[in-house]
Amino acid sequence: xxxxxxxxxxxxxxxxxxxxxxxxxxxxxxxxxxxxxxxxxxxxxxxxxxxxxxxxxxxxxxxxxxxxxxxxxxxxxxxxxxxxxxxxxxxxxxxxxxxxxxxxxxxxxxxxxxxxxxxxxxxxxxxxxxxxxxxxxxxxxxxxxxxxxxxxxxxxxxxxxxxxxxxxxxxxxxxxxxxxxxxxxxxxxxxxxxxxxxxxxxxxxxxxxxxxxxxxxxxxxxxxxxxxxxxxx
Length: 233
Fold this sequence. Notes:
By secondary structure, this protein is mostly helical. 69% of the residues lie in helices and 3% in strands. It folds into two domains: 3-72, Arc Repressor Mutant, subunit A; 81-230, GntR ligand-binding domain-like (Four Helix Bundle (Hemerythrin (Met), subunit A)), CATH 1.20.120.530. The protein is elongated, with a radius of gyration of 20 Å. The termini are far apart.
């Protein structure tokens, strides 16, 4: 490999690394194919391959034969959360909601500041779809839809740590989050109107790019649900 090729591959690797750090390429998301990168940056396939290999050596991506290269969650190996069997524990569920309030408040704040127009449009599609399918679906589907909406907001924060931790936290605490919604639905017999209205307010704050309000509303949204949970004891 010539010095010029080495320099070009390093430059591309650095550019892709910046996109990963800034959350433009999220954990679990595929990098553009080597052919796409080659065309986009007018580089040879061998130069692109060297750039991707550099990212692999740094532990940022993992390449699968025939499956492309996938951005890794850099926090995944740092969290060992053996939580099997505690999802139904109400004290643990309260702790999960407390953590969600802090996490989703920051995610909403930075999403209001940094989300691209395309990301806001996708969040809008998910918001409207969630509102339309709120009735007549299972509790499990409601829980998944709620987390998908909030995960999209986290991804729009362009904060790698917020995105990475949100993925891990939602995945490993899903049973508890599902349990919270299940208790709430059993108590009220339906999805509380307050929660639906809060989703609307959060979405509008994001559209208006009002970061402080988005954070406040996101925290209040989770605190509202937590208080319903504590009142169900």
